[in-house]
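Quick start: read one record
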Amino acid sequence: MTDSEGSMLTEIKVEVAMLKQEVSFINRLFDRMEVLIDKVDTQYEALVDKTSRIESNFSHTKDELEELYELLTQTEQRIREKIDSVENTLNNDIEEMSERVDVLEVDSKDLLKNRWMLAGGISAVLWIVSQLDSVKSFLK
């Protein structure tokens, strides 16, 4: 072997050694990339799982809120109906009481008139009774 062949062989060996180092470095990079990709996949799957649970919870909560809204709407309607019923009853009672008050006013006016008539009648009877003694003595 000649020196040029030996030096070329040495250069090739050096280049092969450098290529081996580069391949080794690239292999380590690929290994690290695989680890990172596995971590990203794991995190992605966890995120998809959490998202799925959140969507499920959201859907369940939405259904519960819709049921609650429907229940509140029905309760509000029943309350309005009861309020209207009580209001109508109170209005009717007020009208009846007003009519009774009118009748009582008329009756009280009649009683007042009758009281004065009765007082006058009692006064007349008392006067007559007081005059009876005078009439008795006159008749004797």
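The helical segments are 3-139.
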